[in-house]
């Protein structure tokens, strides 16, 4: 066979997109950095790896665009769940809730605490599940 396989080319392209994302982060162009991570997510077939890219993309919007941050983190959670990584999906939901609570965005925080509760419940971790339900009720 001549040339690299399709998977190899995708992997190489993803590596280049990650390098470009780092360059954009250094240049403080968070929107372009996020776009590069989203390009990586498009190439991934593994749901957990795809989720990692969405999480990285979302991180660029933390503190500057709450709506976009929320949308991307929800996609990360969905891909973690699709990849049977329920505890990671729960952790992302919990982290989001905490960040929104710190920003006094209680309605958003409440939604994410409830999502975390549901994920922890499915993951059969009742202590964490109950903790998230209490946080949700407190808001």
Q: Tell me the β content.
A: under 5%
Give the biggest sheet.
none
Number of helices: 7
Run of helices and strands = HHHHHHH
Rg, Å, rounded:
17 Å
Question: Would you tell me the overall average pLDDT?
Answer: 93
Helical proportion? over 70%
The total beta strand count reads 0
* Alpha-carbon distance between the two ends: 60 Å
Low-confidence stretches: none
Structure description:
There is one protein chain. With 139 residues, the protein is mostly helical. It has a domain at 6-84. The chain contains seven helices and no strands. It has helices at residues 6-26, 30-43, 47-59, 66-82, 86-102, 106-122, 126-138. The model has no long low-confidence stretch (mean pLDDT 93).
What tags apply to this protein structure?
single chain, 139 residues, mainly alpha, 7 helices, 81% helix, flat
Short description:
This protein has 139 residues and is an all-alpha fold. It is 81% helix and 0% strand.
Show the helix and strand layout.
Elements: H1 6-26, H2 30-43, H3 47-59, H4 66-82, H5 86-102, H6 106-122, H7 126-138
Helix pairs in contact: 1-2, 2-3, 3-4, 4-5, 5-6, 6-7
């Amino acid at each position: 066979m001549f040339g690299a396989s399709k998977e190899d080319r995708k992997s190489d392209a993803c590596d280049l997109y990650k390098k470009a994302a780092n360059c954009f982060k250094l240049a403080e162009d968070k929107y372009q950095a996020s776009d590069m991570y989203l390009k990586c997510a498009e190439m991934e077939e593994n749901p957990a790896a795809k989720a990692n890219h969405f999480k990285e993309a979302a991180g660029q919007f933390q503190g500057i665009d709450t709506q976009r941050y929320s949308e991307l983190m929800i996609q990360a959670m969905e891909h973690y769940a699709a990849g049977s990584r329920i505890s990671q999906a729960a952790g992302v939901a919990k982290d989001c809730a905490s960040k929104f609570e710190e920003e006094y965005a209680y309605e958003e925080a409440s939604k994410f605490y409830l999502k975390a509760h549901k994920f922890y419940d499915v993951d059969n971790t009742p202590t964490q599940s109950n903790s998230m339900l209490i946080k949700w009720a407190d808001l």
